[in-house]
Each structure stands twice: as C-alpha cells, then as structure tokens.
Hints:
alpha+beta, 4-stranded antiparallel β-sheet
Amino acid sequence: MKRINEYKKLFGIDNQIDLKVLKKSYRDLVKEWHPDKFQNGDTLQEEAEIQSRKIIDGYHFLVSMAPEIKEKNRPAYLETTSNSPIADYQHKGLLLEITFTDGSTYEYFGVTKQVFQKMMHAGNLNRFAKRNIYSKYIYRKTKRKLEEA
C-alpha cells in the first residue's frame, strides 16, 4: 500500500486511477526530469536519471492497477485463480506474491502476517486463497507466463 500511495502522490492522483490523467502527468514529469535535458557534469543530471527511472517504474506500476486494465484482464485472472493451483508464494511486509502453475504471478497488497500465517496452515491452500485472498485484496499481475516456442 505504501508503494501505491507513493506512486499516486508522485503523479498527483488522489483516488481512482484515471489512465488519461496518469498519461498526461507521466508525460509532464518525463519532460521535466529527462536526463538528456541536463548537461554533462550538471549536479541535477544524476538526480534526473534516478527520478526518470522512478517515474517510469511508477507509471507502469499504476497502469497495471488501473480499473480499465484490470477489467480487460479480468477473464484471464479468473481463469488463473479458478483453474491453476498455487505453485509458489512469498510474503514480505504487507505484500503477498503468488505464482500459479500456469506461470502467472500476482501481487496482493495489504495482506497481514496473520492472514498469511492462516494461509500457510490451511488444510487446502488454494481453497483458502480463493475464499480469503483473491477477491478481498488489491492485486496486480507482475509477471506473464512464458510463451511456448
């Protein structure tokens, strides 16, 4: 949640993510902080490189969580969470990362240690996640499955 709020603040977004507003803000920030805008040896050039990386990362992160994108990807998400068992999972802070057997990986934000411990001790990991994780937490897809050659 901290990361979400940090990126929203960077782009000046208060509530719901609007792709048009996000895109305009992204373009404005990139123009302001593009490293090529600064001369070699300029003290702001190094800061501009850091800021531009942060802007790009933040943009891609927020786009993946935009309601339009989530709605577009919802059928694939439901397919994965309904038919693919959990292959691996990691919990760090309030972030739960779940990798499914189809190769998809999703991050769930705000998952407490207590919920994670209940999940670990559940008799059926997939059933617990379906009932207590998938529909109750903010999520985003982080990795796509590997395409077969």
